[in-house]
Amino acid sequence: MTTITKLAFVAAGIVAMGSAMAQQITETVTPAVSQSAARPLDRIIAVVNRDVITEFELQTRVHQAALNLRRQNIELPPMPEMRAQVLDRLITEKAVQQRAKEIGIRVDEQMVSAAIEQIARNNQLTPEQLRERIAAEGLSFSAFRSQVREEITLQRLREREVDSKITIPESEIDAYLADKAGFAGGDTTQYQVQHVMLPFTEGDRDAEREAENRAKDIQKRAQKGEDFGKLAAAYSKAEDALSGGDLGWKEAQELPTVFWEAIRDDGAAGKVHVLRTDGAWHVVKFAGKRNGVQAKLAGAPVQQTHVRHILMLISELTPEHKVISQLGEIRSKVLAGEDFAKYARLASVDSSATRGGDLGWITAGDADPEFETQMNALQIGDISEPFRTRYGYHIVQVLERRTETMDEKRTRLEARQALRGKKLAEAVQNWMRELHDKAYVEIRREYL
After folding, report:
1. What is the pTM of this model?
2. Which residue among 132, 150, 177, 225 is the one 20 to 30 A from 276 at the CA level?
3. What is the DSSP string of 62-117?
4. Which among 357, 335, 334 has a CA at the least distance from the CA of 345?
5. What is the pLDDT of residues 245-254, one digit of tens each?
6. How does strand 280-291 pair with strand 272-277?
7. Which of 368, 381, 366, 365 is closest to 308 using CA atoms?
8. Which pLDDT tens digit goes with each residue over 175-211?
9. Beta-bridge partner residues of 398
């Protein structure tokens, strides 16, 4: 998700607070406010290097955190613990902001204004309407603008100090794909072996000699270029004789030990060996080898789904029941023959609205898990009932489905992205905690 898209969702959430923000003192944290009413709001709670965190900053963020928890139906922790938790986050934010200033990252007014214009468009508002909406709800537009600036600054700093330093060696991609393909060991090579089995009765010297001579004759004919599959079909007594004696593609540990010992030193395909086991002579041809990971994954077919959707957010003006009702009405109208794209342009807050809600082709893992669950349950042309993801409420329509073959380049690219995502999440947390720990911090604990 791009920075602007993230900001759009964050800002949409801020706008969606509506009058709930104005009521936060009485509805959410009344005990905390009443207890702190006598506290000077400009009192210093903590010092972070050369910056300070005031009671006002802390109290405001505690209120916002409490609102977010209430929206998720999560019980609030004891207020002293909540204040300490929020304070710790504020300290980290201060340290990050200071680092950005230290290395010269600047976010100019034009960039902030452009981001706010995008946020307004994503909420179906003009910039002036967004400003009026925020003011009408008793919020500070300057504080909102500062939050947008800080989000952009954090993203640019993170890209410079964390994202650019994440490296994914090819060996890690190989190991990731090997594990995904089911290879337990380090060797992911597979071998193709063909064989002819010529059994004899133990102790019958003549039968054994006849089998040995036949094996050597087959070896010579194969080495001269005669089709091995034809020879296996004609002479082998193994069950796979009529399939050309082909054992299929096997890893080393899956091959009979004597076969592997015979072919393991072969540099190139085509060599034919004669060997003896208890009760049989064998002719074994090393037919080829390949990268087992690429074979299992690169050529694996994947299903892709072409979908479009409408996304709506909950706000004070459009509470949950109203959002569900509106999406249900749109669904009914589209099923009756009206244009889905028209309603996507009118009602959706997602950036895909300008494309009629079209999200293009989605491969498994590309979208939110709940979104994919709903999408996969639909037949072509069907429209889902309203459902919720972490982004808001959706209805989704499946337009087409297709099966594509994953080529090696795409397989490795997706593996790299998956590994990068795992590393990045951990690296960002470690980076922010390191900035926090390196900062000089003095907390006035008597005020917590």
Report:
1. 0.43
2. 225
3. HHHHHHHHHHTTPPPPPHHHHHHHHHHHHHHHHHHHHHHHHTT----HHHHHHHHH
4. 357
5. 888 878 777 7
6. antiparallel
7. 381
8. 776 666 555 555 567 788 999 999 998 889 999 999 9
9. 307
